[in-house]
Amino acid sequence: MLVMEKAPAKINLSLDVLNKREDGYHDVEMVMTTIDLADRLEFRELSADKIQLSLESRYVPSDERNLAYKAAALFKETYKINKGVHIRIDKSIPVSAGLAGGSADAAAVLRGLNRLWQMDISLTELADLGAQLGADIAFCVYSKTAIAKGYGELIEFLPAPPACWVVIARPDIGVSSYTVFDQINLPELEHPDTKEVLEALNEGNFSKLCNHLGNALEPITFSMHPEVAKLKEAMRLAGAEGVMMSGSGPTVFGLMKHHRKALRIYNSMRGFCKDVQLIRMLG
Ligand code: ATP
Question: Does residue 220 share a domain with residue 143?
Fold first, then answer.
């Protein structure tokens, strides 16, 4: 039997850090949504009891260090499954980009194995399982629009953003989320107005959403990589209706209501960096 799963990327409409916990994690408040840029995963049962992973990427290991492999191992161990699986990952989501590519793959593995082995486990249970491996995995199990609290594992669903287009642009660098979180100085942090973002989603108000996008990590990433700040400014000057860095960066995204304008901004951003894509919002 062959099972296929899409693993869509996320962007942060807002990202706030509330405090640092005793266990070293930060308490966060992140409004996240899903965009139409996805890795594709294929699952095939093996006769031997093992996990095999194949992917072609210079940046991602295809062994037990891969989050997808870890998710498969956790799934097998939790549900005591003595069967094997070959997982092929076709990566389209850029790595270490702030788009949760690794978490999306891990979440897709949980959904894919659930189908392959006809387990009928609820998404809620899969999300709880995924949260043991990484903060964004619970959100990625659902791949909708939600606010994530706690260290990212507590998910409350929200209405999808109004239909719009997303241009993502990324300088040719990877940013480690760990390094950015490590540099947080809580008293200095500028907090986004999460409440306004929630209101904008509830009202379906696109311009309000664009005006209140916010990310407390931006100044930290900008100070380490000034080219990310320049990219954001370029996107703003090009006319994007809302512009923000996603996650800990370095991807910057712009939101546009209409395709024609989004295409114009996509074309002008291509003069700034190689990795620019025009994507439909899913939510
Ligand atoms: P986050 O914001 O959740 O840290 P990100 O989008 O910034 O996510 P990822 O693309 O998930 O970053 O990659 C982060 C790290 O995870 C990289 O060092 C990468 O090698 C590792 N990794 C492990 N498994 C995967 C995977 N399946 N896909 C991408 N990266 C993976």
Answer: no
